[in-house]
Fold this protein.
Amino acid sequence: MTQKLLFVCLGNICRSPSAEGIMNHLLQQEQLTHAFTCDSAGTSGYHIGADPDRRMAAAALKKGITLAGHSRRVHPEDFANFDLILAMDQSNYQDLKTLNTDPQYDPKIRMMCDFCTDHTDTDVPDPYYGGSSGFDYVIDLLLDACSGLLSQLQQ
Ligand code: 4NP
């Protein structure tokens, strides 16, 4: 049975497509693509249909990771359909709690940084209005969080 993971940020063009791309990259490295399915979505509808942000894609590519997909909004059915829904920051987490109308699915909603082992950050910072170092930092932080998440899910 495959475990279904949904990564969520605000716009679904920077952080969550990166988390999805990084997780798929790790799954390929570990030959675990059969065991997990990854997707990403945004809590806002600001960028529906858009490609991943060019600056974010460039930062990911420096680590050999290609970002794919087009921005979509979180759907009400996502809470039933995914096993784990990972919020990039506290604001995404609160929005997800509000969007989910069925309390049985609440435990599926988790903070991405809870799975970091090398970083003490609690949020994946929004890089959108900053410089290129912010995008590089998001990739480093998400590499840590995704590898911690994968180890926990394999246990
Ligand atoms: P993301 O970044 O939530 O990581 O995709 C953002 C993208 C767009 C905006 C904010 C954050 N925006 O305000 O348009």
Observations:
- DSSP finds five helices and four strands in the chain.
